[in-house]
Amino acid sequence: MNCQKTKLIRDKFSMATLISSTSLSSLFLSALLLLLLLCLSSKPHVVEAKKTEETFPQTHTLEVASLLASDVCNRSPKVSNQDSSLQVVHNYGPCNPRNQGKGAHVPSHGKMLLQDKLRAKAIQAKAKGSKSSSPTAPVQSGTGLGIGTGMYAVTMGLGTPAQEQTLLLDATNDLSWIQCEPCSTSCHQKLPRFNPAKSSSYKNVSCSSATCKSINGLGQTSCSGTTCHYEYQLSSKSLSGVLATDTLSFTKPDTIPNFIFGCGQKNEGPFARASGVLSLSRSSLSLTSQIAGKYENRFSHCLPSSSSSVGHLTFGGKIPKTAKFTPIKNDTRSSVYPVDMTGVSVGGRLVPIDESFFEDAGCIVDPGTLISHLPPAVYSTMARAFEDLMTDYPRTDGYEDFQTCYDFTGYDSVKIPSISFHFNGGLELAVDKSGIMIALPSLKKVCLAFASNFEDGNEAIFGGSQLRTYDVIYDLAEGRIGFAPGGCS
């Protein structure tokens, strides 16, 4: 009996020892797993190449003929739905009234891309200047260096009676200005210049006024008698004239009295043969700031899918239900529109890019820039992912800064990878297929429509080509920018 008890005790002890060993093994494995997780979390965070959550197409079928310019204007009826809505036309397209008839001037692709590069550098210089310790210091190379390079224009009325003016859209310039009579320098405009003497509502701004003093942070002012004169020094060129007010009209029933603008008299630069610039920036003297109370501090635009179609610029209006938003970065020293870009997808997959490249550079939304300019590491990784999915098509030599180029001669249509950008707030913006590639200038050389910055630290600029067909909503009251598809149709 005692022997049986002894055996029973020994068996129980062996079982306990086994359980204890198993528990220790489990604890050891758990510790190893925890250590592995801690090691992985200490590595730089890189966005993995994985499928995105949105259900965007992985490829687009692109009709190659759509890459070529047309000389016939295809107008959309959408812009006539509201009194505060204007048609947006491509500056060099057939829908622009200054390009109708003989003698229309269209610069070469090389010249347009060079101007676009200079514009991007000017915006980046301005953004860097806004981060300095003196927020009101004028940025000599940034306030308007890109003048004449805007790609889109609207036609509005100025004065009483209204004199039609075709103005370039610009979300980076601080002041709207128009070429006036008398004109002493660079009088290249094809359309009639604004004549203050023919407007009964025109007034010069007084030198002692708060309006005249407010421009000191944007440029230089001087007085001639009691009249406020302004001057911007832009690299080796200057823009100067009289600060004035007059009645601005979108349509006959919708007018803006006492609109503040620069009445230019000596402007060095071609203006791209437009009448001037319409400022849509966050500056206190921009059009958007001047009419904020009337239109709920909100405006939107849709840039057309081609140079031969039209879009719209709308002040106020309803926000589309399909709109998705990203916050405008809280930088009161800057009049541009900075946002946080967080990633890029090609062919429906996030490309592996260290998030620090986006954080260090930042991003500015600018419809006046022709193409998007990206940090070098972001651009090169995106381009390689695009090339990996385009092996069915013949490569060709690059063009200037564009190296991802193909020969589409003989093709009626091609399949290209989709491209989308990710922004703070969970927004994924799928670039319309019309904004992914660009013909330079023929189908023998069709290139990826993006450019690389000179340095990784320079701001990315999300440009007009990649904004095409979207209703882009600048909801300044809520501090956000939204995007809704199908904005031009």
Automatic annotation (TrEMBL):
| Span of domain Peptidase A1 | 152-484
The protein's matches in InterPro entries, at most eight in alphabetical order, are given as:
Aspartic_peptidase_A1, PEPTIDASE_A1, Peptidase_aspartic_dom_sf, TAXi_C, TAXi_N
Against Pfam families, the record matches this protein to: TAXi_C (PF14541), TAXi_N (PF14543)
What's a single GO MF annotation on this record? aspartic-type endopeptidase activity
Q: Which residues form the active site?
A: D170, D366
- Would you identify the family this protein belongs to, as annotated? Belongs to the peptidase A1 family.
User: What's the protein here called?
Assistant: Peptidase A1 domain-containing protein
Q: Which UniProt keywords apply?
A: Signal
GO BP of this protein: proteolysis
Please give the PROSITE patterns that the UniProt record associates with this protein. PEPTIDASE_A1 (PS51767)
Signal sequence region: 1-49
Q: What is the lineage of its organism?
A: Eukaryota, Viridiplantae, Streptophyta, Embryophyta, Tracheophyta
